Amino acid sequence: MKALRVLVVEDEILIGMLLADALGAMGYEVCAIEATETGAVAAAARCNPDLMIVDARLRDGSGVSAVEEILRTGWVPHVFVSGGTATIQALRPGAIVIQKPFRDIDLGRAIQRALDVAASS
Fold first, then answer.
1. Does domain 5-120 have CATH number 3.40.1280.10?
2. Rounded to whole angstroms, how far apart are CA atoms 121 and 104?
């Protein structure tokens, strides 16, 4: 079975690299790490991810806005990561969100929830 392609959207380069390492260890293929809203939208069009891990707040743009733009072309399961989850829940009720800092097991569970939701819809 082919590894799922994951787009990581994270403006802190070290955290983006750590996420990529954790995702690789879980058996996923990271197709891009992007730090901006514009970069995320372009990368999604380029690499057609099966899953997105998205920091809600970016220095240049918004992860939430990037996801909204990307989803206009079709559904992609996604998990938001953020220091504060209430804002995301208010903007996108029902969104799968994990709070920073998190453990790899928490990320794995959130990914599974996102994939399960996508499979059932």
1. no
2. 26
Nearest to 4 by CA among 23, 28, 25, 20: 28
Amino acid at 1: M
- The residues, ordered by sequence, that sit 6+ positions from 55 with a Cβ below 8 Å of its Cβ are 9, 10, 11, 12, 15, 63, 80, 81, 82
Give phi and psi for 4, each to the nearest 5. Answer: -70, 140
- Beta-bridged to residue 30, according to DSSP, are 6
The domain segmentation of the chain, as residue ranges, is 5-120
For 36-91, write each residue's pLDDT tens digit. 999 999 999 999 999 999 999 998 999 999 999 999 999 999 999 998 888 888 77
Question: Are 54 and 6 contacting, i.e. CB atoms less than 8 angstroms apart?
Answer: no
Nearest to 20 by CA among 47, 45, 52: 52
Please tell me whether the peptide bond between 77 and the residue prior to it is cis, using omega within 30 degrees of 0.
no
Do the beta carbons of residue 43 and residue 73 sit within 8 Å?
Answer: no
